[in-house]
Write a structure and sequence with these properties.
The protein has 6 helices and 5 strands. By secondary structure, the chain is an alpha/beta fold. It has a 5-stranded mixed β-sheet with strand order 3-2-4-1-5, with helices on both faces. The chain is globular. The termini are far apart.
Length: 142
């Protein structure tokens, strides 16, 4: 029992640091969308909005329930647990309402996935957003 308590105390600072990390919406540079409102971003990540303004299907890049980006999205956009957001996405995929998302649990994988198509969108840490490669751009939230 004591070992479990020690492990929890040692892991707590890392979890708190991840929770304090800010994230930025990023998209493939071929997507002409200049910015999103917070409501638009919620529509994109909830599956309510299925295509971009140019008709390109939206493909999400999401992390696992434990990824910092998924926690940020759940906390700051939807105000529900990450598990709830993922359950909704899985349900929408099962019903054929949205395209199957691409998975990525870190910024490097997210950037790679974003480069795979014009409709792809995801989240990266604010630090990574300052060093995006050609082909990936940040989407300002208004």
């Amino acid at each position: 029992m004591r070992a479990l308590l020690v492990a929890c105390v040692l892991l707590l600072p890392a979890r708190l640091a991840a929770a304090d990390t800010a994230f930025v919406v990023v998209k493939n540079a071929k997507n002409p969308t200049p910015a999103l409102s917070v409501a638009d971003a919620k529509g994109v990540f909830s599956g309510r909005t299925k295509t971009w303004a140019n008709g390109e299907p939206i493909v999400l890049v999401i992390g696992s329930e434990d990824s910092p980006a998924m926690h940020w999205l759940a906390d700051h956009v939807f105000h529900v647990p990450a598990k709830t957001v993922l359950a909704k996405i899985k349900q929408d995929v099962f019903h054929g309402d949205v395209l199957h998302p691409l998975s990525a649990d870190d910024d490097a994988k997210t950037v790679t996935r974003i480069l795979s198509g014009a409709g792809v969108v995801g989240l990266v840490s604010e630090a990574t957003a300052h060093t995006l490669p050609a082909g990936v751009v940040a989407v300002p939230l208004r």
